[in-house]
Amino acid sequence: MNSVIQKAKRIIIKVGSSLVTNDGKGLDAGAIEKWATQIAELRAMGKEVVLVSSGAVAEGMQRLGFDKRPTSIDELQACAAVGQMGLAQIYETSFRAHNIRTAQVLLTHADLADRERYLNARSTLFTLLRFGVVAIINENDTVVTDEIKFGDNDTLGALVANLIEGDALIILTDQKGLYTADPRKDPNAEFVHEAKAGDPALEVMAGDAGTSIGRGGMITKILAAKRAATSGAHTVIAWGREDAVLTRLASGEAIGTQLNAQTAQLTARKQWMADHLKTAGKVVLDAGAVQKLRNEGKSLLPIGVTAVSGEFGRGDVITCTDGDGHAIARGISNYTSSEARRIMRHPSAEIQSILGFVEESELIHRDNMVLL
Ligand SMILES: Nc1ncnc2c1ncn2[C@@H]1O[C@H](COP(=O)(O)OP(=O)(O)O)[C@@H](O)[C@H]1O
Ligand SMILES: N[C@@H](CCC(=O)OP(=O)(O)O)C(=O)O
């Protein structure tokens, strides 16, 4: 097997907290310099690179003298604010040695959920690539609360891969890749060299973070690969301290776990809808409507809706679930939540008499919907 990284032109590289901060002991300048040197080589090979780096909280904890992760949000946010300075500084210095400029890009979930801000982030990242700048991306931890967090940078890495149509996502971590069980807990765990991104069997193997430094663990990496695959990006999970890991991957050597994207690619607008981690509202569908959406390629009509929750406006992205609460689809609503509550369970021909006007006969048109 040749690594997919060999052919990939635009690559998103994600490095985890434990790697970046040497297991919480402080920024690992040596490791960061090595990645910067390798990224410079990748660029000389004609590849474009965007870096998603964790480590702000872990580094801030170190700088402020915390020996265990604070539990209060404001202290965590203060740590992130302090630590992010260290990250920006060390990447700037390490890349400058290779005559490469860096840019700090801090994103929140709200930035990517809003269509205009999403398109702004996208064009800024494209412009940075055009200028030959390596963007160093992290979540803007200082301003986000738990409810609106990406939560972990594996997810953020996948969303960035989708946002800028990356060919591959490389997740560097403290393990050689995915094992059939957490190798910290199960000595018999076997290494997985290659699999299909999105294969549900992988989710069973992957556990949470083995340390208190990392956030997501392996499960968020597996789900990130599934998410990145929707825009056609392949994922490689590899050990960040493996000698010349990035350049060897780029030369085609198979290192780590390769998760191949095989799902059909979504269009750009559908990609944006699919990448909403949270939505303002939700509608519950009856079995007939689930069937129409899933198997018949139909739009969602008000008659198939049995409940509406949350507050949303016309044009907002909402989630459609089945009666058991499983998400089926996401799409742009033609009606507000209060209008939807009034027209649900009714045939579209009655919308005029109920509301006094008709926007559309569908609650969500098929063209504005993505199945999950
Ligand atoms: N099936 C698995 N294979 C490999 N590692 C696993 C698995 N399940 C859980 N893990 C744990 O996930 C950890 C990596 O996740 P995390 O600590 O969040 O890293 P990072 O900071 O790089 O994001 C590993 O150290 C390991 O203990
Ligand atoms: N934005 C956080 C990232 C937290 C996170 O996802 O960590 P990790 O699981 O190590 O990638 C920080 O910089 O500390």
Beta-strand portion reads 15-25%
Give me the side-by-side strand order of the main sheet: 3-4-2-1-5-7-8-6
Shape: globular
CATH architecture of the largest domain: 3-Layer(aba) Sandwich
Helix content: 25-40%
The CATH topology of the largest domain, please?
Carbamate kinase
Report what the structure shows.
- Strands 3-4-2-1-5-7-8-6 form an eight-stranded mixed β-sheet, with helices on both faces. A five-stranded mixed β-sheet has the order 10-9-11-12-13, with helices on both faces.
- The protein has 14 helices and 13 strands.
- It folds into two domains: 4-270, Carbamate kinase, CATH 3.40.1160.10; 279-371, PUA domain (Archaeosine Trna-guanine Transglycosylase, Chain: A, domain 4), CATH 2.30.130.
- It has helices spanning 17-20, 29-44, 56-64, 73-96, 109-113, 115-130, 153-163, 200-205, 218-229, 245-250, 268-274, 287-296, 337-343, 351-355, and strands spanning 10-15, 48-53, 102-107, 134-139, 168-173, 194-196, 234-239, 257-260, 281-285, 305-310, 317-321, 327-332, 369-371.
- With 372 residues, the protein is of the alpha/beta class.
- A hairpin with a 5-residue loop joins strand 11 (317-321) and strand 12 (327-332).
- Helix 2 (29-44) crosses helix 4, helix 3 (56-64) packs across helix 4 and helix 7 (153-163) packs parallel to helix 9 (218-229).
Give a quick summary of the entry.
This protein is an alpha/beta fold and 372 residues long.
